[in-house]
Amino acid sequence: MSDSTDGTMTTSDIARLANVDLSTVSNWRKRFQGTFPERILVGESTRPRFDRQAVERWLQMNPQLGGAPIEAPPLSLHAVVDTFRGVLSPSEAFDFIGRALALIAAMTDEQLTPELVLDRVPSWDDLSPEMFDLAGTDLWTTLPHSSVVDALGRLIAAGPPRDVYEEFLAEFQRSSAATDSTPQPLLDLMVALSPDSDGVVFDLAAGTGGTLLAALSKGKASGGEGVDIIPGYAQVARIRAYLADSRISMHSANSFTKSPLYEQKADLVLVDPPLNMMFSRDRQQLDWIDWEFGNPPATKPEWAWPQLAISHLAPGGTAIVVSGLGLLSHQDKQSSSIRNELIRRGAVRAVIALPRRLRTNTAIPLAVWVLGEPDQIDRRTTILLIDATNLNPDELGQDGPILSAYENWRAGRTGDLDRSFAIDVPVMDLLAPEATLLPNRWTIDPTETRSANDWTAALVHSYLAASESLSTIGHGLPHLQVTALKEPPAPSSIGGLEKAGSIAVLRGRHMERELEEATERYPMMTVRHVRPDTMPTGLDTEFVAASPSSTAQLVTPGEIIVYLDGQSVRARIWTESGWVLGRFMQSIRVLDSSLNPEFLAAAISAPVNEKFLAAGASRTHFTLKEFLVTQPPIEVQDTYAQAYDLVTDKLRWLRQAVDELEAAREQLAQAASSGRVAVKIEDAQ
Q1: Which residues pair with 569 in a beta bridge?
Q2: Signal sequence span per UniProt (predicted)?
Q3: Which listed residue, of 75, 289, 527, 647, carries a Cα 20 to 30 Å from 518's Cα?
């Protein structure tokens, strides 16, 4: 055996590998001079050597010559792209691979070889124009012959062209910036929500064609047409459609100009557009679009996609459109007007808030709109809102709870809806001032339906469990008496208390570091300063200059500071003076003696109020005025605040104890490693 470790083989190695004698290998070198791997030089050796991988591929393509079958190693995209190193970029090489696989798939020869494929390249213009475009004849004649032969040989031996291309596409998208494709769970949901049809499906932002292919494979349409502004994506979609034998036509164009789909209609329109993509404001390009629901604001062009999708709907058609979650709640005048028109005219059937981080390349939360023709006589009087933010991505498809809820709503079985997950909301309610389409603003939190007895049982159980755990370290909690109120107070909101004059709400400002008229400098409050387990004076603090005429908000002792810590709303009583309220923070100044600030802070911190976080990616904003609170008798508030403060103090103590225990353990480990001291527990408790 050869002792080579450099990936090369001698003729003797080849003979042993193929189970033939040495003279047969010499005969192969002469007989197949055009395809047999070329000899390579290794160091100062004069013996002919050959690249092992090239020999193995050649034997795999010529199994009738060897004495024993050669097991084919898995082929990777990188291995084929590497064939064109220095000749084509990775993107250009991937384009060539797609064209080559399309040609290989079109050939029916039993013994397909690279030479046979190359011989027929010039005749591809006899096929359909689309196939000729896939062939790219000029490309074949400009590449090095040896590279083309090597690549074709690898691709022919790799397996069914469609399977190879789909695997290569997934590998290419993972290794490049091409991450705009629709995630599989989202694609599954869009197709599941689509009705079956014998008509045509359009994709107005088709990308590499995955959504169209999935829709046709599931019987949602008999044919499809797609548009994408990036020519490379459109070419990939053409190749995928050809290899899948799908009736799909792809166009490289801008959907907002007069594309090949201009004024055409479809039974199903699917759109998963690039987020925050700007479209031209040139009226000569956009005048063909009838913005019948309202002209999209220049700062929120995403309002164009739902309207464009609706404009392409045939009678009775359905559009499935993906957007950012913020589109459901934007309160600027133009956004509210467009959203209300879509609702009022019956174009919106359902809206689904999706799990966060569904796209790996953006933190922007997403939503799916199910849209139909506006102004239909038999349109529904309710809209289905689904809060799927807590679902796992693999629960979004055909057999998941979203489709079940949607089918129940369509069939009129609204009584079967889990109203903490999906709820049918009357159109008139959604048209109310400041109403939004955010599902979690309408779905019913399970705690909202608890009776007083349920609350009593839940609170006692939780408190006792905490007390028992603390008692194991000698720090139990005092007895908690829980009494159900005979007449619970009516629910209210922070906005309602402010309107009644019971409180004043102050918003933090983003301060300039210096103001010309400033006479004093004050510390700027941040979330780091207001966390319960920190001391403000022990942190690095930015100071800002402010004066009575500036927009600074100076916090006074006793005010409630409301802020976001991670994904949770927090509120605490501030005890220091002379601080400027920082950005993304708000404070509440209690003006009514019938309100206990500690009780109000506890109510604000309830998880139920997390539904009022902003829908954007950063989630730094919150609509404090909508936070739900109650106002029981002041004596109830006082005792409740006492219990809440007690538990909060214990929690703060435990966190501090955990930090100190961690530090002690670290010191013990460090001392053990030093070998300089000995320790002994004398009186373990």
Answers
A1: 564
A2: none
A3: 527
DSSP type of residue 39? P
Residue 233 CA to residue 287 CA, distance in Å, equals 27
d(CA 54, CA 70): 13
Of 63, 61, 62, 96, nearest to 77 (Cα)?
96
Phi and psi torsions of 26, nearest 5°: -60, -40
- Cα angle 225, 228, 232 (rounded to 5 degrees) comes to 115
- Which of 77 and 391 is assigned the larger pLDDT? 391
Write out the two tokens for 174: 């993972």
Nearest-10 Cα torsion for 229, 233, 234, 238: -170
Nearest to 188 by CA among 372, 394, 410, 368: 394
Q: Walk across the sheet containing 503-507 and list its strands.
A: 503-507, 586-590, 560-565, 568-573
Residue 386: the pLDDT is: 96
How far apart (Å, rounded) are the C-alpha atoms in residues 154 and 161? 11
C-alpha closest to that of 189 among 367, 360, 419, 339: 367
Beta-carbon contacts of 293 under 8 Å, excluding residues fewer than 6 positions away, are 306, 307, 310, 338, 341, 342, 345, 347, 374
Computed on alpha carbons and rounded to an integer, the radius of gyration of the chain in Å comes to: 34
Contact 297, 242 (CB under 8 A): no
- Strand, coil or helix: 455: helix
Percentage of the chain lying above the pLDDT 90 cut: 27
| Position 70 pLDDT exceeds 80 | no
- pLDDT value, residue 202: 95
Our measurement of the distance from residue 473's CA atom to the centroid of its chain's CA atoms, rounded to an integer in Å, reads 44
Rounded-to-integer distance, Cα 348 and Cα 343, Å: 6
d(CA 82, CA 93): 9
Cα dihedral across residues 481, 482, 487, 493: positive or negative: positive
